[in-house]
Design a protein that fits this description.
The chain is of the alpha/beta class. The protein is built from eleven helices and eight strands. β3, α4 and β4 form a beta-alpha-beta unit. The structure holds SN-glycerol-3-phosphate (G3P).
């Protein structure tokens, strides 16, 4: 029998903030972490320090992004990032040089997260190149008047249909509805910002119900 939850959508936290990551991990909500240069910049800390801290907190895939845009540069960064910790997943941009680097990483056994994916065609190429994860940016597709969830749906169908092992990692998630829809579509992973993770747990009736229970508890004779 398959244990409950086996094969269920994994939850990653989309953050480079160690405090947020620790807090979400304490709630059992972190199967992995995705970072990007913007998230690291927000912390005001050096990239290497941030990554070193995250691998200590979370025992799961940790995406760390390269900054080079040429194949040689990307491969240099990918190889040194992969040496930092076995859980490191090298994040590569979905540009032709990034696809070349994805292919070489796959041949060298380096895990990859191909990022900045905005279409099913891009995602198809990433899978063909041997990506471990593909990151369709749902929120940013919606921002440009597209349908981010549709890209997730297409990628899940294409990968399952052809037996690609690349996992669909729904990224640029902006609200709880994105999470529910990603789960319904069978995304392998949703990477969720800390604020949205908290929103997932929130319900006004939970707060009202709890306040009432606590109020009524005062009337219980001691
Ligand atoms: O990690 C990449 C992605 O999740 C970015 O999200 O909200 O900046 O579009 P956002």
């Amino acid at each position: 029998m398959v244990p409950a939850g086996e094969g269920a959508m994994k939850i990653f936290i989309d953050s480079a903030d160690v405090k947020e990551i620790r807090d979400a991990a304490a709630m059992g909500l972190v199967d992995g972490v995705t970072t990007n240069p913007s998230l690291v910049a927000k912390t005001g800390r050096p990239f290497a320090d941030v990554i070193r801290d995250i691998v200590e907190i979370v025992n799961g895939p940790i995406s760390a992004e390269v900054l080079s845009t040429d194949y040689e540069g990307m491969m240099g960064e990918a190889r040194s990032l992969a040496k930092v910790h076995p859980n490191i997943v090298v994040k590569l941009p979905l540009i032709p040089e990034g696809l070349k680097a994805t292919r070489t990483c796959s041949q060298e056994g380096i895990k990859t997260n191909v990022t900045l994916c905005f279409s099913a065609t891009q995602g198809l190429l990433a899978a063909k190149a041997g990506a471990t994860y593909i990151s369709p940016f749902i929120g940013r597709i919606d921002d440009a008047a597209g349908d981010g969830m549709e890209v997730v749906e297409q990628l899940v169908a294409i990968y399952r249909g052809y037996g690609f092992e690349t996992q669909v990692l729904a990224a640029s998630i902006r609200n709880p509805t994105h999470v529910v829809r990603a789960a319904l579509m069978g995304a392998d992973v949703a990477t969720i910002p800390y604020g949205v993770l908290l929103q997932l747990a929130k319900h006004p009736l939970t707060d009202v119900g709890l306040a009432k229970f606590l109020e009524d508890a005062k009337k219980i004779p001691r």
